[in-house]
UniProtKB/TrEMBL annotation:
Organism (species): Bondarzewia mesenterica
Chain spans, region Disordered: 1-59
Keyword Membrane: yes
Name of the protein in question: Uncharacterized protein
Keyword vocabulary terms for this entry: Membrane, Peroxisome
Domain of life: Eukaryota
Amino acid sequence: MSSISFPNSSQSHPSSSNSPLDGPFYSSSFEAMSSNGFQMNPHSPHPPRTPRTSVMSSNNTVYNPEIFTSEAEMEERPTDLEEEVDVDIDSVKANARARGQGIAPIYPADGTSKSKEPTSRPLLHTFLHASPPVLLELVNAFADDVSTFSRLGLLGKRTGDRAGRLADWCWFASTLVDLVENGVERSIILNSQREVESRLFADSMTGATAKSTPRNTRIDETELHRLQRQDYWLQITRAKLVMDLAFVSYDVFKLQRGKSAVKTFAGLASAALSSAKLYDRHRNVLVKALTF
């Protein structure tokens, strides 16, 4: 095998010796290779290329990025992993505290829940937000009082007549409204009563006896008794309203035929029905009072 020797770098490039970059680019390893010679394969058709040594020397130094950090920054950085974790926890707590500032606490800070005191509303606000039947009854009561004061001689006769006329019309209108409400309530109760009766009939067809009556059947029987009682008193209320309507119709429309007899009978019947309703409503209280 033939060998090719390379000339010394100082002889080939005399001008480059003055350059300060000759040292890093041409190391001692290249000089050793030049002195020993380069072995070439004689069977290779291509001429050998000039060997190029790596720019990086063998004794390269790996620099840490921390050399670019100033001493002040190095002092500020945490040196322990626990300090970094503490900083992260503090930042999380600060964010949670900032988010929680806009949320009202469920309980007050002192631990005692204070109920809000009901604010008193003006009388005009109550009148404006009342239902029409309530306002109608209020006007009826006021006009009736004015008519009564006129009959007692406290007010003029003309004022009393107008107030009495207004009271009769308010009474007539409120009676019609009460009759409509009574009909709606009774229809709802009748529908509920039919549903309970259908359930009881279905239970009776399953073969349940008196000794094996299930709990649901007993509940349905109690509910049916309650609905029947409500329907009974709704019918009493409707009869009382019809009597009131007959009584006030003679005054509103100024009917004269059978006026005294009809008004007397209607008044007595309405009073008796009202007394029965009042007695049933306060029966338990009366029984306790009579017992003790």
